[in-house]
Amino acid sequence: MNGKTLRNRTISGVFWSGANQFGMFTSAIITSIILARLLEPEDFGLIAMVNIIIEFARIIVSFGFGQALIQKQGITEKDLSTVFWFNAGLGLITTFIVAFSASYVASFYNEPELQFITIVLSFNFLIYSLNVVQRIIFIKAIDFKSIAKVEIMATIVSGFSSVLLAYWGYGVWSLVFQTLTMAIISCVLLWYLSEWKPKMIFDWQSIRDIWGFSINLFGSQSLKYWTGNIDKVLIGKYLSGSALGLYRQAYVVVLNPINRIGQVIMQVLFPTFAKIQEDRNLVRNIFLKLNRITALVTFPLMVGMFVCSDTFVRSLLGPKWISIIPILKIFSCIGLVSSINELFKSIFLGLGYSNLLFKVGLFERFTLIGGVVIGLNWGIEGVALGLLAAALVNLPVVMYYGGGIINLSVVKQLTNLFPILFTALIMGALVWCVNLQLSQFNELKKIVILAIDVFAGVFSYGLLAYIFKLKAFYNFLELIAPYAKAFQK
User: Fold this and answer.
1) CA 31 – CA 181 distance, rounded (Å)
2) Alpha carbon of 288 to those of 75, 100, 344: distances in Å?
3) What integer is the mean pLDDT of 377-398?
4) For residue 79, what are the CA distances in angstroms to 74, 154, 192, 269, 275?
5) Average pLDDT for residues 139-154, to the nearest whole number?
6) What is the largest CA-CA distance in the chain?
7) Of all helices (H) and strands (E), which one includes residue 471?
8) I need a labelling partner for 234 at 20 to 30 A (CA). Which of 133, 291, 305, 374 fits?
9) Residue 71 pLDDT > 70
10) Is pLDDT above 90 for 294?
11) CA nearest 300: which of 140, 119, 142, 421?
């Protein structure tokens, strides 16, 4: 594959992966807002308790083999079928283990209702295991258009179903059904769109060939997952289901979309960097450009949420969610940092440094656990502040080691992002002034004020990006130009 073709496929991958995440986020946030009106914080807390285990399904059933297949050159049918059957067996075993452990989950949180919920959702492990290879084939080919079709459809259908069930009074089970339905629809559609089907082949040599990369990655992902969810485990255990529900909803509104944006870029960069891993200069140039594009989107979103969090909650979520306003502000600061942090995984994995990723991950997890445990003494706000402190400590470490792989200094990385941050902060100040003036008009509804704030933010940010001639702004226009022309036709 020549450089121009790879560049075009990478841009196409970013576009379709971005469209996928935007579609999923739009559907998910609309569903979340409606469900917040129909359900209680305790319902979200219950599902969050068990989802901490169930969402680990993707890591367990992949076992790092999926990413190993992306990184490995010249994979064969034997490799694909072997990994499929290994993952399927692992998914089946894990389903039984989780189902039989359901009573312990309920006992740990002292929530008897969790036992049956855990048994039902344990089937997610088996379902996820059946489409790992199909998904990896699409990713390795940088075919994110097919993945976008699958995930957007699954998100919309599962979200609509959960809203109906919540309206009919099924409470927490509407959230259970949403999770299970999304997994089933994704699996069915990936099988339908994929031309590859597993053959009755299994060879331990294929497992041994990718074991070193996979076991490091599995360890890194597992460590990151559990330490990344230690806040939810401790809140559910030592505070309350209602507190966890509030915390989880704030996480969904702020950090989920930011993590999605980072994953959009990361999952495209990973297979791209794997293909060009010998050309470090090209890797560095692509990384810097897409890092700027990511910041161009995430920085104003986070600054805007920080400024408008009060209006957002009062206008869309309702009075029973007022307590999450300070959490939204803190999470906005975390999101600004984490959106950049996520991209470095593409360097570690695409260039074959899964062992270094694991070591850096150990340091990240240590600081994160420390921040959460200390912050727990001050409730959910303390936990959020602990996460923010850990994020600020971890970012320069990740930038140093990740950038070192491609000879990119921390100073160069900060210089690359500072103009975007400065522009976003000016936008935030302007929106704050607009919001302050509008709040004096008591007859204006909060939803109207929020709409004006959003318009003011988008308009001022776009204008400032043009006036300051942000390089990221022109990179973004370059990214979307081919698709804008296609839509015009």
Assistant:
1) 14
2) 30, 48, 11
3) 91
4) 10, 28, 21, 23, 18
5) 79
6) 71
7) helix 471-488
8) 305
9) no
10) no
11) 421
